[in-house]
Amino acid sequence: MTMTSPAAQTPIARKISTNAVIRTVLANRSISRADIAKLTGLSKQTISEVVRDLEDEGWLKPAGRTDGRPGRNAVIYEINGRAGLAVSIDLGGTKIAAAICDLLGNVVAETKVPTDRRGGMHLVNQFSDIIVELASAAGTTADKLRLVVLGTPGVLDPVTGHINVAPNIPGVDAMDLRQVFSSRMGLPVIVENDVNLAAQGERWRGHGVEVDNFAFVALGTGVGMGIIANGALLRGARGAAGEIAYLPIGGDAFDPGGFTLGTLESAVGSVAMLRRYIGFGGRNASTVADLFAAFNAGESSAVAAIEETARLAAVAIAAVGATLDPELVITGGSIGARPELVNAIRRFLPRCTPYPPRIEISRFGNRAALMGGMGIAVERMHDDLFGVKLREA
Amino acid sequence: MTMTSPAAQTPIARKISTNAVIRTVLANRSISRADIAKLTGLSKQTISEVVRDLEDEGWLKPAGRTDGRPGRNAVIYEINGRAGLAVSIDLGGTKIAAAICDLLGNVVAETKVPTDRRGGMHLVNQFSDIIVELASAAGTTADKLRLVVLGTPGVLDPVTGHINVAPNIPGVDAMDLRQVFSSRMGLPVIVENDVNLAAQGERWRGHGVEVDNFAFVALGTGVGMGIIANGALLRGARGAAGEIAYLPIGGDAFDPGGFTLGTLESAVGSVAMLRRYIGFGGRNASTVADLFAAFNAGESSAVAAIEETARLAAVAIAAVGATLDPELVITGGSIGARPELVNAIRRFLPRCTPYPPRIEISRFGNRAALMGGMGIAVERMHDDLFGVKLREA
DNA sequence: CCCATTTGTCAAGGACATAGACAAATCACC
DNA sequence: GGTGATTTGTCTATGTCCTTGACAAATGGG
Fold first, then answer.
1. What's the start-to-end Cα distance of chain B, in Å?
2. Which protein residues have Cβ within 7 A of any strand C atom?
3. How large is the C-alpha radius of gyration of chain A?
4. Closest C1' nucleotide to A43's CA
5. pLDDT of residue B2 exceeding 60
6. CA pair distance A160, A176, nearest whole angstrom
7. Distance A77 CA to D3 C1' (A)
8. Does this UniProt record's set of keywords contain Transferase (chains A, B) (predicted)?
């Protein structure tokens, strides 16, 4: 079972046939050769040859036979998920979540540990330890993995590869994290903004499946947005697309204070919401959880603070809507996942935009970014392994 | 010279080779067979066969020979532009601009006429007359054309195909203009928002060449935006992406008046700018041209009116920037093309956003939408004629 | 005028696809 | 339990397309 990419130097026609077979199997989970032939339009003979090669190389495996219908029973084939494993890591200010998934997107090992607050190289060491441990739990070793996807807060510069991380995590903006981590592991590493990953996660297996235009809005300590437009992630020229912290809403756009924190972020972040509660005379809440408890108890300052936050969030969503025209906005984050807030946003929205998008709360909660990393990893593995490259170039 | 798509039912391998040859010739304007072989990596033999077929079918034509270098001279081939002609029409409230271009994007005939104000079917008749006339001027007939691209104001619903046109043009929102026009001409018709077309025009041969993320902002009687993201036009879920008239900036987002005209449009449109001038005590201008003349004469009310308009436009661009992170914003339209306004915007922008995009004035002025239509037409012809379809489906 | 260089064609051989015949396996029905 | 219809999968023959290498044709430089 040689684990090189299938049809590595085969002529172009066989590459295309092989790709068509793999894609057909992927799309149908499990399928017989006869059905592959019908779906691809290729001859039975060609399919048999291609499937034989793919099975010899370990990419496909037989998985039972048909029965119950007239005629000879067919052998069913499916993708051998174990033929490719990848890692997804979600680096947060307090926790690191990580998982290994296979070629089919099945999670084969998962863990969550506190973030090493010393930052920098300590994080790289921590990642490495996590991967070794996960690999062991998955019954394999780290050198069998194909790819790591790492989600971090902050803006990634697509030119330099550097991350401008918010204050949460020390010593990461000074280094080329991707490069260091990649050579440490001897694996390709993809680094992506965590909110972008959350959007990808919803696109992959959440509310965004089959929705080509939507946005994932994260409301928490900070605010951020991941955009799926025309079915693909939108990063912008400097990787800052969706950085709605700087949206000129909820304050004076020309106030220089908006530059450090962001105009919108100073208006709808959890800190602003708590400050607003105090300003309204509230005295019973010092955390977001407290505040929502007070809201549900009907305390007027809490109601006012949350309503005002929802009102501003609705205006922000209206602004995004006027630009992107999404079909759907998915909310997440510590306050964006609260139905109380989201219901208020749903009430305000039709009053400030003529075309209000649908609003849904993230299907994956705080696992959205982790899911997105797996989605990207699986997609990338499929491309690398089964993609048709017309020319090497 | 049979004018069907080349390699219509040839097996897949020859299709790919044919496509590679055409694309290489397109990318190099004119080129010898030997060089095509080097660039594509295909053998001289294959290239000779493919080029012979393409020449027999009229897609390629010889265009001289090399000389001056050692060795036998090569025959140079180029695309036969005349093998495909298409029409671009820009429907405006007062004028209709139209042009015929060939496969290479060369303009072979162009005209401009006043819009028939009766609207509806009268417009379809007018389009038809224009096309016949242009075809004649181009030395061909209307039935030899392959495609029409029509730019209109208003939002196109991608589901119903209907156009919600601003008040300018009567009797168009009630009909399926695309369908009626298409069957009248017996040609495929693509209808697209005019600002989207302007963005495509800049992308094709203007400031947006090689810029994968930019926006075209039209400032005039109305305001609108066309978005190129990840190198492609962004339409959104309902075709309303870029409809920044409704951006909640420059007024109260919850004012119901913002629904009919749009919050931003009531703040930065030319009507608002003139009203603002009057409000500041100005009495010497009743048109946009007058107002800019007064500005250049140093009249304080005119300066204030234009500065305030620029200030709001800068905030709007900042909002778009926080969402899309474009590398570049191109301005156009009757006031967006004025350097006086644009310079003022350039001054305000760095004060309301930490990452101000570059600002340029449209390269094509009021021909931008016409150019965009040609760009789309050429691209579409290339796809239809030379595109590789792996499966008919 | 000769030669190095480049272009383009010819002929042979290999990889891959298709089509059709045929053997094998299975269900339905008597 | 046997028979026939149906479906699967392999085998064989044939054709298309691509590549390779030989070779003729054309051209500039010395």
1. 28
2. A 10-11, 13-14, 16-17, 41-46, 49-50, 65, 67-73; B 32-35, 44-45, 48, 52, 66, 69-75
3. 24
4. C18
5. no
6. 9
7. 32
8. yes
How far is the alpha carbon of A352 from chain B, nearest alpha carbon, in Å?
5
Tell me the domain boundaries of chain B: 6-79, 84-198+369-386, 208-362
Count of other CB atoms within 10 angstroms of residue B364: 19
B66 CB contact with strand D at below 7 Å: no
CATH of B84-198+369-386, one of 3.30.420.40, 2.30.40.10, 3.20.20.10, 3.40.50.10330: 3.30.420.40
The nucleotides of chain D lying under 7 Å from a protein CB are 4-13, 16-22, 25-29
pTM value? 0.91
A14-CA/C26-C1' distance, Å: 32
b/e per residue, A241-250, with b = 16+ CB within 10 A?
A: bbbbbbbbbb
Angle, vertex CA A339, rays to CA A338 and CA A342, nearest 5: 90
A6-79 matches A208-362 in fold:
no
pLDDT digits (tens, 9 = 90+) for A301-322: 999 999 999 999 999 999 999 9
Going by pLDDT thresholds of 50, 70 and 90, the confidence category of residue B92 is: very high
Instruction: Domain A6-79: state its class.
Output: mainly alpha
User: In this complex, is the C-beta atom of B253 within 8 Å of any C-beta atom belonging to chain A?
Assistant: yes
**Alpha helices in B2-100, H assignment, sequence order:** 12-28, 33-40, 44-56
| Three-state DSSP class for residue A266 | helix
Quote the pLDDT of residue B222: 86
Six-digit token pair at A154?
A: 């902050």
Query: What span, in angstroms and rounded, lies between the C-alpha atoms of A176 and A150?
Result: 13
Quick check: A29 CB within 7 A of strand D? no
- How far apart CA B64 and CA B76 sit, in angstroms, is 5
pLDDT at A10: 54
Separation between the CA of A139 and the C1’ of D2 (whole angstroms)? 52
Fold entry, domain A208-362: Nucleotidyltransferase; domain 5 (3.30.420)
- Beta-bridge partners for B156: B163
Burial class (CB in 10 A: 0-12, 13-18, 19+), B254: middle
Please tell me whether any atom of strand D lies within 7 Å of the Cβ of B9: no
User: Which residue in chain B has the smallest CA separation from A259?
Assistant: B354
Amino acid identity, position B85: L
Pick from B218, B96, B114, B82: which is nearest to B150 by CA?
Answer: B96
Q: What is the pLDDT of residue B6?
A: 37
Report how far residue B323's alpha carbon sits from residue A346's, in angstroms, rounded to the nearest whole number: 21
Q: With left for phi above 0 and alpha for psi between -120 and 50, is residue B41 left, alpha or beta?
A: left
Determine if strand D comes within 7 Å of the CB of A34: yes
Selected residue of A323, A330, A349, A392 to mutate for chain B interface (largest B Cβ count, 10 A): A323
| Residue B79 confidence (pLDDT) above 50 | yes
Are the Cβ atoms of A323 and B227 closer than 8 angstroms?
A: yes
Please name which of B272, B267, B275, B353 lies closest in space to residue B313, comparing C-alpha atoms.
Answer: B267
Q: Among all chains, which residue has been given the structure tokens 């579409």?
A: B380
Q: Which of B357, B346, B347, B358 lies closest to B319 in space, CA to CA?
A: B357
Distance A82 CA to C22 C1' (A): 38
Distance from CA of B286 to the nearest CA of A (A): 31
